[in-house]
Design goal:
By secondary structure, this protein is mainly α. The protein has 10 helices and no strands. It folds into 2 domains: 47 residues, Orthogonal Bundle (Arc Repressor Mutant, subunit A), CATH 1.10.10; 136 residues, Tetracycline Repressor, domain 2. The radius of gyration is 21 Å and the shape is elongated. The relative contact order is 0.10.
Amino acid sequence: MATTPPELDSARPRGGRLPRRERRAQLLESALEVFVANGYHAAAMDDIAEKAGVSKPVLYQHFPGKLELYLALLDSSCDAVIDNCRAALDSTADNKQRVAAAMEAFYDYVAGDTGAFRLVFESDLTNEPAVRTHVERVTTECAALIADVIHDDTGLPDAASRLLAVSLVGMSQVSARYWLADAGGLGRDEAVALVSGLAWRGIRGYPKTD
């Protein structure tokens, strides 16, 4: 019986049978590329299926529609931002270093090769309630993590701690996106140091509790 030469076997399309979990991960990876490149409205399920090397019926077996596929991607992207923020805050008990670590987490996420941050911070579908809810979850949950630290350290009321925390989250993601679009010769480390220095000079003015 003839065997397939290795060079031809390695060139087989990706549409061969895969376990369901692996297939779903592959479809999400392909969808991310298409959504990041084209935005939600211009992306087509045909394009995603072609990128993944599968038929459209296979794609629809995993995701009933384009919105469900987009929300699945958005979910994992939002989780990544929140998890990165939590890890940064947990990485040290020194608040100055916490500010820098949290800022760095946002810059690293925005500078990631996949461009997944565009789904979270630059979505062209924020008029869709489900998408808006996902996007707002990033600010809400990251701010809640930071607010807990502020409240515990300063004794400020919850409302004041949350407002300061939301301001820090906004500073982090807006400055990171601006830096990525127009770095002006600034490296990532220099940009993080500048903005985290600004944030720390502001937040350290609030008194510590005993």
